Amino acid sequence: MKRGGSWESGGSESGAETRLEYFGWVYHLGTNSIGREFCHLRFLYIRGKYVMMYKRDPHENPGIKPIRRGVVGNTFMVEELGRRKFNDGDLYVLRFYNRLDEEKKGEIACATAGETRKWMEAFDQAKQQAEYELSQSSTRNRLSMEDEIDLEGRRPRVRRYAHGLKKLIRIGHGPETLVRRSSNLGRHHRPSEFMEGDAADVVEAHEWRCVRTVNGVRLFEDVSDHKPHSKTVLVKAVGAVDASPDTVFEVVLNLDRLRRYEWDALTGDLELVDSISGHSDVVYGSYDPRYLSRWQSKRDFIFSRQWYRGQDGTYTILQCPAIHKKRPTKSGYRRIKINPSSWEIRNLRGLAGSNGDRCLVTHMLEIDSGGWFKWKRDKCAKFERSIAYSLLNQVSGLKAYISANPALTCESSTTLVDTKASDVSGLISEFEDAEVAEEFYDAIAAADSSSSSDDDEEDGDAELDNKNQRVKLKNVSWAIASLALKAKKAMDCNNELDQHVDPVTINPSDFCGSLHKGKSDGDSNCWTSPSGAGFKIRGKTYLKDSAKVAGGDPLLKLIAVDWFKLESSRSKVALHPKCVVQTEAAKKLPFILVVNLQVPAKPNYSLVMYYAADRPVNKNSLLGKFIDGGDAFRDSRFKLIPSIVQGYWMVKRAVGTKACLLGKAVTCHYLRQDNFLEIDVDIGSSSVARSIIGLVLGYVTSLVVDLAVLIEGREENELPEYILGTVRLNRVRLDTAAPLES
Q: pLDDT at position 183, please?
């Protein structure tokens, strides 16, 4: 048995020689036949695209049969639902569902957000296996959903692995370690996905200047656009912490008073007021200002917290002042508004020859400019007794606390098991050879209404309140490449369009959407089409050095934008008779890409962008494969890069600056017809995306937002990447959205 280390993934699209198999203990959540909710301990085994669930560890109980089994198909989706309270502890919940039918679903739970992420990676590997097999099928048409469930098709990658190298990754050690105490913290390893780079995928508008270094933590101020008479200034504390982002995230989010007393001098006394969702809550806190200055009454405050994890493994926590009816003003306390702030916890790649986890912790907040500038100039001691300075020092406290508690980080989070240790292979092989297998979301959801004894019975080892031990789920980590950003523009990708055909003339006046085109940057409630220079995309040598380059001009021309309001979200807007695509001018164009961003609200909104090509698309190009390919390929490649050019800094932190594979974050539907491809992006299908878009809508009239869409390049002949299209939305007003008739 070997512990630790980083391992290369087998690769998802070209078919690797190494097979990864995952197994470990999780909680199976559901409702039994009499409507009673259960939370049972189960052993999960993932091999290729096949998933099996046991009541006991099959390695220790040879011959045991699975109680649930299924396959992960190309319509399989995994969503993080965030935290959910079970008895006296919190678990992090994963939901499985079919993106074509969300009624087919199931749930499992783990102890921490980091452990949940590792299981998501395991299921992502299983889905990539299914997509690879589907891409290798020799049938003319892609398998339908029924074909996918029928396992009589080919299994080229599975068979190739039959005599190849196999790596078994144990997630956790056993059921005795799985039940979690709410006050305990997880032990994690670095993210196991190939990270695209630590820098943002857009050119940052902030200009940060380091003004002090305190206890190994750098203090910065934003000097990009500071007005002389401004009452506030944006500052941040940045420090490297010798722990994984998962561990630091758990420490910052934990409300346990005794633990917070060890690193948090200001907000140590916190208690939960209301749990809004799995990704947000409201907390109440108090402090005695005698620790900061003399002769002051006690203070209390309320703030909301909202958190999420990006696709690159970075955690973001937003904290804003709030009010709540459960916590009115308290006698003897002075109610204050704590500074709006945000945490960003990002993985750092280890230096050559170094071992262990490391992350970069950034705590950003908006503070009064008077005290800050006086302290910066004279190092005024009064500012060092302020709330703002105490908040900035939280990074120092966090760094020292984790350094003084090696138990938080010392345990390895990867266990590589010798291939001889697995006795489950034979059982899985029988499963692979079966004529029919259920999709995994069907198999796991079967327990919801089953009256069998498999899940309805009370398992003594599975009840949340029968053990006083914490969950320990572990997973594999793979090698992470370093980033080298280079200030050069991406090459033009001329082979995407047929250069042998004369281009057609695209006259913008021939197309009219409900949102008008702006004439200058000062216009509001309009759109423009910026260049791609503000975005960073994968360069020609990305596979070797992770270098990114500045984007060039978009391949497609933005011809119109629609801003609709609807009673319920709507797909296939291109088929509407009043849609731009249905005009005579649009029908003469070689190709139109329609991107429909479905915004959940009351009422619902749709932002529809129309990108046109002036030449036919080369069918052998990456764009041609994307247009006429399957949904699984489209989901894995369609990428969006957001950038808040102007607006409230908290909204900028919420939206982020990293590229997002939309098909992995939310549900996307595709319509290929005539001379267009429509992509319907259901933002409401993700609870995290819903909460972020809710924050954006609150400030939308003061925001300038840039978006870039592109197809992710993964092979050498697909690089450098190119930008399909861009759009700039200038201070859009909700009340100007045009109704879309049925």
A: 33
Residue 609 burial (CB count, 10 A): 27
Q: Which pLDDT belongs to residue 524?
A: 95
Note whether 492 and 551 are within 8 A (CB): no
Q: What angle do CA 6, 12, 13 make, to 5 degrees?
A: 145
Contact assessment for residue 611 and residue 725, using Cβ atoms and an 8 Å cutoff: yes
Six-digit token string for 346: 């990002």
Rounded Cα distance between 429 and 66, Å, is 13
User: What is the three-class DSSP state of 201?
Assistant: coil
Neighbours of 224 (CB within 10 A): 12
Find residue 302's DSSP bridge partners.
Answer: 284
At 678, which helix (H) or strand (E)? strand 676-682
Alpha carbon 643 to its chain centroid, in Å, reads: 16
Dist. CA 343–CA 318, nearest whole Å? 7
DSSP per position, 245-268? HHHHHHHHH---HHHHTTT-SSS-
The residue type of 660 is: C
State the Cα–Cα distance between residues 26 and 422, nearest whole angstrom: 19
Average pLDDT, the chain: 80
Cα–Cα distance, 314 to 309 (Å, whole number): 6
Q: What is the pTM of this model?
A: 0.74
Question: What tokens does 709 get?
Answer: 């869409």
Retrieve residue 308's tokens: 């999420």
Q: 708 by DSSP, 3-state: which?
A: strand
Rounded distance between C-alpha atoms, residue 62 and residue 423, angstroms = 7
Four-point Cα dihedral 523, 529, 531, 537, nearest 10: 120
Cα four-point dihedral sign 244, 247, 248, 249: positive
Any bridge partners for residue 317, and if so which? 307, 343
